[in-house]
Amino acid sequence: MFYLIASAEGFSRLFNLFRYITFRTGAAAITALLIGLIFGPRFIGWMRIHQHKGQPIRSDGPKTHLAKVGTPTMGGLMILIAVSISLLLWMDFYDRYVWACIAVMLGFGVIGFIDDYDKVTQNSARGVSGKVRLLWEFALAFFACYLILKDGNTQLYLPFYNGPVIDLGWFYYPFAAFVIVGTANSVNLTDGLDGLATMPVIIASLAFFVISYVVGNAVFAHYLGIPHVPGAGELTILTGAIIGAGFAFLWFNAPPAAIFMGDTGSLALGGSLGTIAVATHHEIVLGIVGGLFVAEALSVIIQVGFYKRFKRRVFRMAPLHHHFEQLGWSEPTVVIRFWIISFALALLGLATLKLR
Predict the structure, then answer these.
(1) What was the pLDDT predicted at 2?
(2) What is the number of other CB atoms lying within 10 angstroms of the CB of residue 304?
(3) Number of other residues whose CB lies within 10 A of the CB of residue 63
(4) For binding Mg(2+), which residues are annotated in this chain's numbering (predicted)?
C-alpha cells in the first residue's frame, strides 16, 4: 500500500523513504512483530477453547512429551496472518517473485491447516495422507516455478564457484519444485520441540535477507560474482515479515510452549524459504544455511530405509532431535544447541557469497 502511495504523482518527495527496500523491510518486520504480539494471546485463548484436547501427542515418543497434552496447535496461522498483513502494507504489488512466494506460503499453509484440523478432530497423529499432501505441494511448487522462471534463467549455480555451472533447461522445473517441497517437509520434520523450528527459520530468513538484497542489486551481484535477478530484492520484504512474525510466535512458543506451530506454519515457512532460494538461484546455498533441516529429513529417510532393509535402527528415534532426547539430553539443551548449529551454518552459507 505504501509503495503505491510513494509511486503516486505529487507524493514522491513526501514518501520517498518508502522507495527504499531496507526501510520497507524493517517496517515489515516491526509490523509483523507487533501484530503477532498484540493479537497472540487472544488467538491462543480462542484456540484453547475450540481445540479442547489440542495437538495429539505420539504415544511412542519421549515420555516427557506427555506433559504437553492439551497444548493447542495451528499456531502457524498467527504467523501467516502477521506476514500477510505486513506484506500487503509494504510489498511491491508488481513483483512476481513475492507473489510466487505468497502463493506457496498460503497454499502450503492451507495444506498444513487441513492436516492439523484432521489430527485435532480425529485425535490422531496421522493426519492427511502423505501422497495427497505431496501431490498438492508439487502442484503449487510448479506454479510458483512458472511465475519465477518467466525470465528463462534455468542455470544452476554452485557455492564457491564464480558463474553458472550448467543450464538445466526444462529439468530445472522439477529440480526447483523438489527444493521447495523438500524444504517445506524438512522444516515440518524439524518442528518437534518447543521453539526448535522457529529460530532456525528466523536465522535462515536473516541469511536470505542478505542474499535477496545482493542478488537484486546489480552492483553487488557483479562484484560478488553471483547471479543478478532484477526484482528479487523485494524478497527482503518477505524475509523481514517472516523474521518479525517468527519472533512474535517464539514469544509464545518458547518452552513451555503455549501453542504449537503445527503443519500450518512449518509447511508454509519451509515452502517460503525454498521459493526464495529458487527465485534467487541459491538453491544449493539453502542446503547449507538450512543444513539442520536437511539433517532432520535425512535422519528420517535413513531410519526408515535401514529398518526396511535390515530390520534395525540407526538412530534411537527419528527425527534427529528425538535421538538426542533418547540419549538423555533435556529438551532445552537440544533446542539451544540446534539453534547454535543453525547460526553457524547460516554464517557458512553467507560466506559462499564472497568465497568464489
Answers:
(1) 55
(2) 13
(3) 8
(4) 188, 263
Residue 356 lies in a domain: no
Q: 185 a known binding residue?
A: no
- Report the amino acid identity of residue 181: V
Averaged pLDDT in 10-residue chunks for the chain of 356 residues: 55 67 94 96 89 65 64 92 95 93 96 90 76 94 94 87 83 96 96 92 97 95 91 96 97 89 95 97 96 96 91 90 92 95 96 85
Phi first, then psi, for residue 202 (nearest 5°) are -60, -45
Amino acid 270: pLDDT: 97
Provide the domain count of the chain: 1
Contact 92, 234 (CB under 8 A): yes
Q: What is the pLDDT of residue 20?
A: 85
Q: Is 92 annotated as a binding residue?
A: no
Residue 104 lies inside a defined structural domain of this protein? yes
What are 291's three cell numbers?
543444513
Q: Which of 181, 173, 98 is nearest to 137 (CA)?
A: 181
Long-range contacts of 47-54 (CB under 8 A, 24+ apart): 47/72, 47/73, 47/74, 47/75, 47/259, 48/72, 51/120, 53/120, 53/123, 54/120, 54/260
The set of cell numbers assigned to 62 is: 519421549
Q: Which domain holds residue 75?
A: 2-351
Of 256, 269, 253, the residue nearest 184 (C-alpha): 269
Query: Which pTM was predicted?
Result: 0.93
DSSP of 213-236:
HHHH-HHHHHHHT----TTGGGHH
Q: What is the pLDDT of residue 3?
A: 54
Within a domain: 250: yes
Nearest one of 213, 233, 241, 243 to 89, comparing CA atoms? 241
152-155 contacts at long range (C-beta below 8 A, 24 or more positions apart):
153/227, 153/229, 153/281, 155/227, 155/281
DSSP letters spanning 128-187: S-HHHHHHHHHHHHHHHHHHHGGG---EEE-TTSSSEEEE-GGGHHHHHHHHHHHHHHHH
- For position 51, what pLDDT does the model report? 77
Q: What is the CA radius of gyration of the chain?
A: 20
